[in-house]
Amino acid sequence: MRPRAQRPRLPETSARQRKARLAWNGGMTGESRPPAPVAPFEACPVTCCGTPADDQAPPGGGMVQVAGAADGADAHWYCPGRCTVLARTRAELRAVPVRPGGVR
């Protein structure tokens, strides 16, 4: 037997099939509305957040130094909280080895 994706689809010809489809969709028909425009990241209000860590002194109080990835990226200073988490996550993702063919 062929997998489900390869089986031919039968058209919805009976009223019961259309009624079942409408019940499954909650009665909604037609095109979906587009998603709301939401920015995934907001600009950080701290002025010195993301500055390179050239010298060892933090540019402001409470700043966290995040080391670059193993590929030689420079360390930067980030404000505590979301910016630090995003920077550490980005550094960890850069450290993932690249597979043959260029895909991580």
Task: Characterize the structure shown.
This protein is of the alpha+beta class and 104 residues long. It has a domain at 51-94. Helix content is 22%, strand content 8%. Strands 1-3-2 form a three-stranded antiparallel sheet, covered by helices on one side. The model has no long low-confidence stretch (mean pLDDT 79).
Radius of gyration: 26 Å
Shape verdict: elongated
Structural class: alpha+beta
Q: What is the tally of helical segments?
A: 2
Order of helices and strands: HEEEH
What's the β-strand tally? 3
Features:
104 residues, alpha+beta, three-stranded antiparallel beta sheet, 8% strand
Fold topology:
Blueprint: H1 15-24, E1 51-52, E2 64-66, E3 76-78, H2 82-94
Antiparallel strand pairs: 1-3, 2-3
Question: Can you describe this structure in just a few lines?
Answer:
With 104 residues, this protein is an alpha+beta fold. The chain is built from two helices and three strands, in the order αβββα.
